[in-house]
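Long-time lurker. I teach an intro course on protein structure, and each term I like to show students one example going from raw sequence to a predicted 3D structure in token notation. This year I'd like something fresh instead of my usual example. Would anyone be willing to generate the tokens for the chain below so I can use it in lecture? Attribution to the forum is fine with me.
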Amino acid sequence: MSAPTPKAGKGRIRSLVRRGSEAGKQPRGGAAGAAPPEGSVCRRCGAAYRRRTWRRGRPGASAGKSAAALLCPACAQVEREDAFGSVTARGGFLVEHGAEILRRIDNVCRRAGRTQPERKLVSVRLEGDRLEVRTTSQKLAHRIASELSKAFGGRASYDWIDRDGTLRAVWEPRARPA
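-- Reply from a regular --
Happy to contribute to a lecture. Here you go:
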């Protein structure tokens, strides 16, 4: 007796639909070309390339046989000042609580960097009543904007740009009553 053949479910059907995708599409952050050698270590941040992805290096784990020292895609992106996400805000609230806001942004970036070393800050500028944060990924910008609105109140709005895939997030701090 032979086993019955499984029916094609929606998951199988949907996985076969390839409409709207290109066959040779490369990830936006990474440079097109050959992958770095296994065991490579970023000379700037210490991330290690293991099992086809960049991971936060463990002490002693990357000091292997022949680890090549090169820049990971995120550090190369920071060097080029190429941002895929940005968060902007303005208002008097930023002047009063600038140090707290910068500390919160730093905490969000550290937390993201532990598990995903390719999500980094490109630049942070707090000048007077204007804040501009640029990041290497959309997700980190999204996290920063939502964390600021959660911690300090206000509203975050998100705008994904179709032509280049960047995220522009705007955080509007809540006006404090006088």
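Some talking points for your students: The radius of gyration is 21 Å. The chain has two domains: 37-71, 79-172.
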